[in-house]
Every structure is written in structure tokens, then in C-alpha cells.
Amino acid sequence: MIWNEKIECASRDEMRDIQSERLKETVTRIYHNVPSYRQKMQAVGLVPDDIKSVDDLSKLPFTLKTDLRDNYPFGLFTVPMSEIVRIHASSGTTGKPTVVGYTRKDLNNWAEMITRGLCMAGVHRDDIVQVAYGYGLFTGGLGMHYGCENLGASVIPISGGNTDKQLQLMQDFGTTVLACTPSYSLHLGEELAAKGIKKEDLKLRIGIFGAEPWTENMRKEIEASLGIKAIDIYGLSEIMGPGVSCECEHQAGMHIMEDHFIPEIIDPITLQPLPAGEVGELVFTTITKEGIPLIRYRTRDLTRLNYEKCACGRTLVRMEKCKGRSDDMLIIRGVNVFPSQIESVLLEMSETAPHYLLIVEREGNLDTLKLMVEVQEQFFSDEIRQLEALRKKIKNKLQSTLGISVDVKLVEPKTIERTAGKAKRVIDNRNL
Amino acid sequence: MIIKQLSVFLENKTGRLNEVTQLLGNAGINMSAMSLADTSEFGILRMIASEPEKALSILKESEFSVRLTDVVCLNSPNEPGALARALNILSGEGVFIEYLYAYSMDNKTANIVLKPDNIQKCIEVLQAHKLELVSASDMYKI
Ligand SMILES: [Zn+2]
Questions:
Q1: Residues from chain A contacting residue B64 (CB–CB below 8 Å)
Q2: How close does chain B come to A382, measured CA to CA in Å?
Q3: Is B106 helix (H, G, I), strand (E, B) or coil?
Q4: How far apart are CA B100 and CA B122, in angstroms?
Q5: Residue limits of the AMP-dependent ligase C-terminal domain (chain A) (predicted)?
Q6: CA dist., res. B91 & res. B100, Å (int)
Q7: Using an 8 Å Cβ cutoff, are B74 and B112 in contact?
Q8: Window A:405-424, CB contacts with B under 8 Å
Q9: pLDDT digits (tens, 9 = 90+) for A45-99
Q10: Of these four, A66, A229, A295, A349, which has the most CB atoms within 10 Å of its CB?
Q11: Which domains does chain A have, with CATH numbers?
């Protein structure tokens, strides 16, 4: 079922008109209410009237995560606190948390986005949804909760953790839909097997997973272990929370709620917009948000957009699973290289990704890329021939994926240094 | 007749081979045969140890990539042409040898460790031709 057919199946022209109208209104509102963004516009000589349609979007200055921190906690809110009905915050790895505020209308819009996403995934009002995202400052739990209620499904607000109870209620209540992080769903699958509970004895049929990156291999594993269809949902608290985009049953990219957020793909180095279909950094402009509207917010997530109509009938643009973070990007001989690309090549060769380290050097004027791969048990053969074949296979795969040659070296386990349990992935020895 | 051989992945770094022998020596594990295959980048140490399972877990604990591989050991007269005869028989029966290494304990016989592609067939062929195989327990005891 399509929850809001008029919007979700609108023609490109209709969507453009909606976006242009809402963009103009948002820019005007921010200009008059947020001094720090007004200063950014003035610095490039822009006034709200210069923005006449979505075509003018690229004239506007970007908003960065640091802007939220610099205006901590409520400096970017455009409405008085009397209008704010909820506050969420995400703890950053460094410094102060990122704080967002929602008006009543924001919450209603958010609930509808998640409802649309649930319908895309094939969830309906007869479903029993176990929300195992954390409830609290994190947007996952409450966001999903109100979306499910808005649809009319039965919500089990169990929150995260307590795996035994999760599995018990899943059996006793006949949960049909599971919403949590993909890694937690894998854990639930393992526990299920450990307890000898058969997936056939559960009523689970759909999983809505998000809040962290996951691979296609993980999807296959989750679908097999829980006997469900695993749907990817995307969001970030700065923009709204989960439901900014969501996959439909065709699992062919996540439909972005374009009547609320305008997506752009930019080159993270030149900051210029890229043509449709190219991989770059995802940038969002919120066009209905009242609490904390953001213009051209750089997500740092790398993906590409597909504007073709989907097999499900929806015209909402689709974004691919994120390919990595622009912060991690390396440019080698003019080619953009992401550690995540290397990880996925290695994942294709074994069940678990081995530890690896990418070393970039500059010899003369030429950048060279060396990949050290730890030969753990899953890779080890006692035949030289097979180890050489493995090395060649990794090398060839990387060459075809990245478009540049990589020197692959097999090393012993634990050769690669770990800091606090996490392996360092890249060493750039070029002095650029 | 199947012997558990210990195979260890080694980078070509100084001291690593030493580390392996020391770890096993300290645990009172004896090595009866050993061979090191190497390329310019890495090597594989193959050996027959007195307690293969124990050796495996000791090396694993020390973060080596290690596994047990099934091999057979042929006891052949220490005389010209003996090994060639055995290998001819095997290739004649379609048994392919991935690698082998040999050592001699005295002047009369030599032990030849073989890693065939099909271990069951290899054993059958050798036994059918009355060639002498070293039993696993004898092998670990040496
Ligand atoms: Zn679709």
C-alpha cells in the first residue's frame, strides 16, 4: 500500500514545484530567525529573494555539524521554546552533543514519514511491531514508535537490549515486524539459534533496520537467520531521525521523503553539485521543518541518487546504501578511494572481513597503494599456490573496483596495530 | 595411516621461525619432520609434531595462522630410484601430489611426507602396491 500516493507518486514537475515553494519559505524564515546563517548568506551577498526555485539551491551556503555544536544547545532553533515539544540529542564522539528540537507539526510530519516507510516495507495495521531501537535521547525508538502508531500497527515499545525478553515476547506476542539496528538483529538471530528456537516457530516477516551502516552480505545473513525480509531505513537526527528515506519491498534503493527534504550530491572536495547518478556526499535541505530547519546540511555520507520511477510505482528519488563517509575518502592518482570499498571486496571473499591496513605512499610523483591483509584462519591454506591465488584475486578485484592497481601483501594475524580494539584502516604517508 | 601435519603461515620476517620452535620446545613438543616453503613474500612452515592438537592450540594462542593438514608418510628404501618408483605408481593411478618433503633417519630407509589431492585413494594405491606407510602414532613418536 502507498500511504500518500499524491506525494509519493507525484511527477518530477509536481515535486519540483512543491520543493521550490517550500524552499523559498524556509530560506526566508531562517534568514530572519537564525543570525549565524543570516551572516553566512550576507557573506556571499545573498538575500532570500535571490532564491526563486530549487535551481537556486546551490547558491546557498552549507550547514555543517560544527554549526550545530557552535550554537549549542538551541541556537539554530527558529521558533520560541514554547513551540518546541520534544528535544533529541545525539552524543558525538568528541565534544558536545548535537541537539535538535521538534514542534508539534515536525513530530506529525516525522510520524508520517515513518508510516510511509513502513508501508513501503510492506507493513500494515494488522502487524505487531517490536521496536527494539533505544528509546530516549536517540531518535530511533520514539521515531519508530509514533510512526507505527500512526499507521495503526500494534507497537511493543521494548526498547533496546534484554535479549532474553526480546525473544520471549517475540514468541509470546507473535511479533511480525522487528525494528532495530542490523547488528542487533544479527545478535538476536544468533541467540535464537543458540536457544534452539526455530525461525519457523516465529511469526516474524519483516525487519526495519537502520542507524548504522550494513552490507548486502549482512542483509543476506539476517534474512536467512530470522526468515524475514530485511528493509533498510535511513536517517540522521540533525535532519529528522529515521525515516528520511526508506526502502520499499523491491529493496532497490531508499526512497527519500522529497517533499520534506531536498537531496543533493556534491563533490566533497570541490563542493560542486554532481550530475544525477554520480557518487558523492549527500546534502540535505529541510523544507518543512519548523524546530531546526537546516539548509544544505552536509551529511558526510557518500551515496548516489536514482531519479527513475521505481517498480513499486513511487517516483520519490532513491538513494543507494551509503558507501562510506566523505571524511574517510582518499584521493589516489585522482581517483576517489574509500576504505569501505576495500572492505566490501574482502567481504566478498570470506564470511568475516579480515583486518586490513591501507598504506598510501608517494614515490616520486606517483601515489602507490599497498594493502596489508591479515591471513586469518578463514583465508589460510597450507598450499602456496592457493595463497598466491588468493592474493591475485584480491588484487584483481580491487583493480576492477577502484580502477587503480594495489600492491597486496599477506601478513600474519595481529600484525596490524589495534588501538582500543579498533583497527586503524588507513595510513597516509604522503606529505600533502 | 593419516598423519596430522601442522601448517603455519609465516611472513618472511626474522625470528618468527625461532618463535614457533621455541613455543613448541617449551611445551615439550617434539618435531619429527619439518619443511619450509617460501615465496618472496611469505612462507608456510609444515611439520610433524609429537602432539599435533596441543601444538595447534599453543600456536593459535600466540596468534599464528595455523591449521592441521592430513598427509601420509611413505617409508621407502634409501636407495636410488625408490622414490621415483613410488611416485610413478601414484601418478599412474591419477593421484596428484601437492607437495612432499623427505628425511632420512639412517642409511637404510627414508621417510617421505606426501600431501596428495585425494588422501584415501593415495593410501589405497600405496597399500595395494605393498609400499610401506608409517603409522601416525609411530610418526609422532620419532
Ligand atoms: Zn520503490
A1: 412-413
A2: 6
A3: coil
A4: 13
A5: 334-430
A6: 14
A7: yes
A8: 409-415
A9: 999 999 999 999 999 999 999 899 899 999 999 999 999 999 999 875 556 789 9
A10: A295
A11: 1-327 (3.40.50.12780), 335-428 (3.30.300.30)
Distance, in Å, from the CA atom of A227 to the CA atom of A189, rounded to the nearest integer, reads 9
Query: pLDDT band for position A269 (50/70/90)?
Result: confident
Question: Are the beta carbons of A368 and A378 closer than 8 angstroms?
Answer: no
Q: Is the pLDDT confidence value at A258 over 80? A: yes
Residue A214 reports pLDDT greater than 90 = no
pLDDT tens per residue across span A3-34: 999 999 999 999 999 999 999 999 999 999 99
Q: Is the ipTM here above 0.90?
A: no
How close is the Cα of A215 to the center of ligand 1, in Å? Answer: 19
**Interface contact B69-A410, CB threshold 8 A:** no
Residues, CB within 5 angstroms of ligand 1 (ion): A 248, 310, 312, 314
Q: Find the distance separating the first CA and the last CA of chain B, reported in whole Å.
A: 15
CB contact under 8 A, B65 and A413: yes
Question: pLDDT digits over A104-132, tens only?
Answer: 999 999 999 999 999 999 999 999 999 99
Look at residue A331 and give its three-state secondary structure.
strand
| Torsion from C-alpha of A171, A172, A176, A181, nearest 10 degrees | -60
Query: Is B46 part of the contact surface with chain A (CB cutoff 8 Å)?
Result: yes
